[in-house]
Structure formats: structure tokens, C-alpha cells
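subagent[fold] <- orchestrator: predict structure for attached chain, return C-alpha cells only, no commentary.
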Amino acid sequence: MLDGVRQKLGWAKKEKAKSLAVFIDGPNILRKELQIDLKDIKKVLRKFGEIKVGKVFLNQYASEKLVEAVVNQGFESIITVGDIDVAMAVEATEAIFNPTIQSIAFVSRDSDFWPAVIKAKRYGKDTIVVLAEEASASALKNTADHVVIIGRRM
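subagent[fold] -> orchestrator:
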């Protein structure tokens, strides 16, 4: 009965936000023509939890300005030589087995991370994919628990 009174009065306990791990495919998402900003990504992911792990994967050609922008937005920049997808999938797999992480978000335009989404779901993680275009990554859209489409700014 006391809980009902608290809810009516607005005193209900707030649920603790889920811990969220976010993995961003930098070369695929942070492109000038897409006009997607890390602020936009953080904003749409807030409703899914609190970002505890935030990593942006970049290749060795990333400018210092881009690396600085990533860090200024509170993300860790991971510079790779070679295949970004492999490094991102390995980091995501580590998060899948982290008991303090409840949700995992993949930000990309392709379906390369479909196996990681499947693995995350198998181990009870809530999965989110953030895509740049409606037509991208059908396998991710059809597998993830939540799909968010962010696009060009008008």
C-alpha cells in the first residue's frame, strides 16, 4: 500500500539505469556526408541506459582533430591498423561477458557485427543497434532488441 501512495505522490523509487556498453564503427558512421555527431549518438542512447563503456574505433588515418573530438565527447578512441571490425567485435565480446554490463549498443551501417549481437542476446544482454540509414544493416535490424535510425540533419 505504501508503494501505491508513493507512486501517486511521485515519490516512487527510480529504477537504476542499465549499464550500457557502446561500440561505434567510426569510419562507417563518422563520415562528413552522414552528418552524424557523437552528441547525437549519446542522446539517443540515453533512454537505454548509462554509458559505462564507450569506444569509438578509428583507423590509422583518423585525424588528430577527430580523435580529440571523440575524447572530448567522453568516448575512448581505439586506433587500429587493419580491420576495425575485428577489434570492435573482440571488445564487444569482452563486454558480453562483463557482468556489470546489461545492454550493448552497436553503431554501424553494415551487418558485420551480427554475430556479436547474436552472442550478446544469447548471454542475456539487451541489444541496441544505431544505424545511419533505414536501408542499412538488415541483419542487425532484424536481430537486435532495439533499433534506432539516426540520419542526416535537416
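orchestrator: received. Logging for downstream: The radius of gyration is 17 Å. Strands lie at 19-25, 50-59, 76-80, 103-108, 126-131, 146-149.
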